[in-house]
Amino acid sequence: MFNSSASGPQSSGNRVYRYEVVGLRGHRTSGSTFFNVAYDRMTQFTRQILGQGGKILNVSPLDGTAPLMTSSTTPAESTDTAPAVPAESTEAAPAAKKKAHADVKVNIYRPNSPLTGKLISNEALVSDGGVGIVQHLKFDISGSELEYVEGQSIGIIPPGTDAKGKPNKLRLYSIASTRHGDDVDDKTVSLCVRELEYKNDTGETIKGVCSAYLCALKPGDPVQITGPSGKEMLLPTEEDTNVIMFATGTGIAPMRAYLWRMFKDNERAANADYNSYKGKAWLVFGVPQTANILYKEEFEEMQTIYPDNFRLTYAISREQKNTEGGRMYIQNRVAENSVELWGMIKNPKTHTYICGLRGMEPGIEEALGAEATKEGIVWKEYVRSMKKEGRWHVETY
Fold first, then answer.
1. E-state strands within 16-114
2. Does residue 72 lie in a domain region?
3. 56 against 329, higher pLDDT
4. pLDDT tens digits for 266-324?
């Protein structure tokens, strides 16, 4: 999945820093939002973020040097030559105790010194009669220092220049493989990529710069990789945690990584500390047609082998009807199963993950919120508490 939330000022002749922020009041995105901020506006911008209830997870120079701050690093620990994040922001990244996943690495490879990987395979995921082009790409990263875990992303730098003649900027994609890779040998990383295609105001067909580039790659082709990045979508480390997953389209990428880690035999054998998943995993996957169910055979095999631990539910909008006779979307499936889902969510051992189109969020929250209201619980307040507990994970676009 391409994270397209990067926004903010650009600067000429001045260093620019990339802020990763969560929790902004009134902001539609539940996951991380990214802002590019000029050096001379950092103090003012930090005050604005804190004033809106935001939390700063990461501050990194766009030139690829070391990060100024991450959610597990206080400003004083930074080795970058830029000024420390202003004192007002230190409460946004407390370091009083080690946070969950504090040892997970980010930004091993940066835009100014990317890893050159090599494409191993490029396989179509949409069956005949399906909508659009979606590919599963596996890259060779052997001999590199790239380490990642399930739920992280990598950046891809497409070749060429943009309309202004500047080198194309990287795009972020959620990783679709476990930390050991599809071959379980620690030598690969995989992506699930949909080729973006749309018509502009003049009716001309436009394709996404990076997605079209990736979908057209041939085995052996080199590719520039950065990262890994992100800690919003990481799995809990306990094997008895329940995991609810809501996904649409290529938002399935991190969910595939989770499910492989939980249920693939070779993967389980490779994990000394996570080799016998004991919780309940439930995937609700929204697609337009049966032909667009990505990784269908993999998921259905897992459900067959582990029926007591894995539940698979589809919402196929163009083929199934909801209770009112309209199209079946993911929020309709959530409403149908809201009592059971709400029962799971109340369990402190349950983590919920939402990845894909932002439009599914309101419907999901409405259905679950209705169940919460029956018990006198204010849904928004409950979600806020789950976020603080690290049990509510969202990455939508």
1. 16-22, 33-38, 55-61, 69-70
2. yes
3. 329
4. 999 999 889 899 999 999 999 999 999 999 999 999 999 999 999 999 999 999 999 99
**Structural domain of 179:** 115-229
What is 349-394 written as a DSSP string? TEEEEEEE-TTHHHHHHHHHHHHHHHTT--HHHHHHHHHHHT-EEE
Q: Are residues 352 and 319 in the same domain?
A: yes
Query: Would residue 355 show up in a list of annotated catalytic residues for this protein?
Result: yes
Q: Does one domain contain both 280 and 375?
A: yes
pTM exceeds 0.85 for this model:
no
Q: Is residue 29 part of a domain?
A: yes
Task: Pick the catalytic residue from 89, 174, 177, 190.
Answer: 174
Active-site annotation holds for 174: yes
Place of tokens 């409460």: 91
Catalytic position from the list 19, 109, 173, 314: 173
- Rounded to 5 degrees, φ, ψ at 58 are -160, 140
> Which residue has tokens 């060779």?
140
Instruction: Pull the structure tokens for residue 42.
Output: 């950092």
Task: Note whether 149 and 58 are same-domain residues.
Answer: no
Q: Which residue in the list 213, 355, 361, 371 is annotated as catalytic?
A: 355
pLDDT band, residue 53 (cuts 50/70/90) = confident
Count the Cβ atoms, other than its own, within 10 Å of residue 192: 26
- Between CA 143 and CA 242 the distance in angstroms is 35
Task: Quote the CA–CA distance of 42 and 17 in Å, as a whole number.
Answer: 8
Which CATH number does the domain housing residue 212 bear? 2.40.30.10
> What three-state secondary structure class fits 262?
helix
Domain count across the chain: 3
Check whether residue 261 and residue 348 sit in a common domain.
Answer: yes
The set of residues, in sequence order, having a beta carbon less than 8 Å from that of 55 and lying 6+ positions away, is 21, 22, 23, 92, 93
> Is 274 marked active-site?
no
Co-location of 218 and 348 in the same domain: no
DSSP string, 22-42: E--TT-S-SS-EEEEEEGGGH
